[in-house]
Amino acid sequence: MELLSPVGNFDNLIAAIQNGADAVYLGASNFNARVNAQNFTPEELKSAILYARKRGVDVHLTLNTLLFNYEIQEALNLAKFAYESGISSIIVQDIGLAYLLIKHFPDLPIHSSTQMTISNLHGVKLMEQLGFKRVVLARELSLQEIAQIRKNTSMELECFGHGALCVSYSGQCLFSSMVGKRSGNRGLCAGPCRLPYNLLKNGNTIDNGYLLSPRDICTLQILPELIKCGVDSLKIEGRKKSYEYVSIVTKMYRKYIDLAKDNTKPYKVEEEDLKQILQIYNRGGMGTGYFENRKNIVFSEKPNHLGVYIGRVKAIQPKRKQVTLDLAEEIQMGDVICIADDTSYVSQIINQNTVR
């Protein structure tokens, strides 16, 4: 199984490679689904490909937005530049662009983006007939559905294994355009699923909160099952995430993919490793998404980083800006703590239970 890490800039490229990524995916200045990531200029892209390939790491370019007619030539020029610079593959959503890439660059592997919503064997077979090398499967598939596809195709199969989920079907979002006036299919998702809503019945509110905000996914606990299903590449989401996020998440998945493939040792995820994953970034404590029971997908209490539980408040002295806590975890100077959505840095530890 290939470990595929997100790269939003050159520092994150180094972080991914140093922590064990087999491959990375990144975007250039245009036509990628994370326009607001730092991304790579043409010269930076060329340097990134050279840096990675020297270290035996593949580089997949995201050319994965929908295109207008007038953009096709520019997208082809970018693909040509990446091809001549040694790119390993190009990830595509737009079927017209894919057709042209396969026609003009027959020896360049083309991957169908998850936003092509390939959710069954018939879709995979179609991609194979069209000349795609790999299918990034829709995120809504279960382990059993992936295994059934694997038994009936030789196509490379890739799955998202860690990070954010989209409430729309594998990113096919029109809500962003309607509410935020920006299209996720053009790389400018406004994140309407992360906003608070009221659920009404006959004009009365029966629920409220972040009702459309999915939990992040974490598949460390089910990696052996994913490998058994025949997943060729496990993708970590997060091209807009930090250097620390890329480092820690890549390191953990490298460790446990290797462990899952080692038949001489029992597979068990250490609690401390799970804590590191949760501490660097998690929405809703994380779950396994649609891979298993498909329940509890949405976490309505908070739309962003939840952190880890460290204890409860025993007393507050507002004038002294002092809080007394009943701690379940040790804290350090500079730690960020959140009390009822009020986020502050720890600037002074009077003792292990009293901070400012």
Please explain how this structure is put together.
The chain has 356 residues and is an alpha/beta fold. It folds into two domains: 2-280, Aldolase class I (TIM Barrel), CATH 3.20.20; 311-355, no CATH class. The chain is 29% helix and 22% strand. The protein is built from ten helices and 17 strands. The chain has an eight-stranded parallel beta barrel, surrounded by six helices. A four-stranded antiparallel β-sheet has the order 12-13-17-16, with no helix packed on it. The chain has a two-stranded antiparallel sheet with strand order 8-9. Helix 1 (10-18) links the parallel strand 1 (2-6) and strand 2. The longest helix has 18 residues, at 243-260. The chain starts with a strand and ends with a strand. The mean pLDDT is 92.
Produce a short descriptive summary.
This protein is α/β, with parallel strands linked by helices and 356 residues long. The chain contains ten helices and 17 strands. An eight-stranded parallel beta barrel has the order 1-2-3-4-5-6-7-11, surrounded by six helices.
Unreliable spans are none
CATH topological fold name of the largest domain:
TIM Barrel
CATH architecture of the largest domain: Alpha-Beta Barrel
Structural class by SSE content: alpha/beta
Number of strands: 17
Alpha-carbon Rg, integer = 22 Å
Order of helices and strands: EHEHEHEHEHEHEHEEEHEHHEEEEEE
* Biggest sheet: strand arrangement: 1-2-3-4-5-6-7-11
Q: Considering DSSP H and I runs of 4 or more, what fraction of the residues is helical? A: 25-40%
Largest sheet: 8 strands, parallel, barrel
Helix count, per DSSP?
A: 10
What's the overall geometry?
Answer: globular
Average pLDDT confidence is: 92
Q: Could you give me the name of the CATH homologous superfamily of the largest domain?
A: Aldolase class I
